[in-house]
Design goal:
- There is one protein chain.
- The protein is mainly alpha-helical.
- The protein folds into 2 domains: about 80 residues, no CATH class; about 150 residues, no CATH class.
- Helix content is about 70%, strand content about 0%.
- The chain is built from 9 helices and 2 strands; from the N terminus they run αααββαααααα.
- About 25% of the residues are buried.
């Protein structure tokens, strides 16, 4: 496999902030009521005149949170897999989340900015909740679909350049999105099958359990516990299954089934194909 140059390592420690934490006055200085009133009026005037600037700052804060969490994730992943792969991996996760965001915008669902969590991926908090299983499935499907396209582009770049980094990213993206399609909440697949059949959650539980028994991955155990709790809550109140939320037309159910299982087939095939290519490269 080709070697890629690594950038300069980050320093192990950073200088501490030299600014003082505060000060203590020997004697309190009394303030007049007029001074307090003037300060209050000045603050109100500032908020009225600079309201747009304050709103812009709040919006910037959301963007900053996304940027900082992205950079943090890149740094953490780079400790294990190097800077180039870490950057590409986070970009793949970002594209996956943007697929969800695009679907939310189409359906008129308000949402916050994506926040990245190392080894958990990323999440977008919904400000509005889907009104039915059809909308929930549509939003959930947007992420894996965008992720599959991004992974396919990485695979295409590998074929054009024979750069092994693109192949590694392609395989990771294919497998990551395939895993996300397991029909178990809180994974995307669990939300998609609400428009197909809730009974598929049982298959998802078994799949996650088998993966956990094979890998002993703590994250899988967390998904298993969360999914199992959700499964129990839904079937404990069976009357909710016949409520308006889960009422989906037969035509939409068939369309979503074809899209869901078709995407699983594509991601499964490409995961195996890219993994075989990686194994061939490793034994050279």
């Amino acid at each position: 496999m080709k070697n890629y140059p690594e950038p300069e390592p980050l320093p192990r420690s950073f200088p501490q902030d030299p600014s003082p934490g505060g000060f203590v006055q020997d004697r309190p200085v009394p303030k007049s009521k007029k001074g307090f009133l003037w300060s209050l009026l000045s603050l109100l005037g500032f908020l009225l005149l600079k309201g747009k600037a304050v709103l812009a700052f709040l919006k910037f804060g959301k963007v900053a949170l996304t940027a900082v969490s992205m950079i943090t994730s890149i740094w953490v992943y780079a400790l294990f897999w190097g800077w180039y792969f870490a950057l590409g991996f986070v970009v793949l996760i970002f594209i996956h989340e943007m697929g969800h965001a695009a679907a939310m915008r189409i359906k008129g669902i308000r949402a916050g900015a994506p926040v990245f969590i190392p080894f958990f991926g990323a999440m977008i908090a919904l400000k509005d909740q889907p009104q039915n299983a059809k909308t929930e499935a549509y939003i959930a499907f947007g992420g894996p679909l965008a992720g599959a396209i991004a992974s396919g582009i990485c695979f295409y770049f590998f074929q054009m350049t024979q750069n092994h980094l693109f192949l590694a990213l392609a395989y990771t993206g294919f497998f990551m999105n395939l895993f996300n399609l397991i029909p178990m909440s809180p994974l995307d697949g669990g939300r998609i099958v609400t428009a197909i059949s809730i009974k598929l959650w049982g298959i998802g539980l078994i799949a996650i359990l088998l993966l956990f028994l094979k890998t002993h991955n703590v994250l899988l155990l967390l998904v298993l516990l969360m999914g199992g709790l959700r499964f129990w809550q839904v079937y404990k109140e069976k009357e909710n299954l016949s409520s308006g939320y889960y009422q989906v037309s037969s035509s939409y159910r068939w369309k979503m089934s074809l899209a869901y299982f078709g995407l699983i087939a594509y991601l499964g095939y490409m995961s195996i194909d890219s993994l075989n290519l990686l194994n061939q490269i490793m034994v050279r």
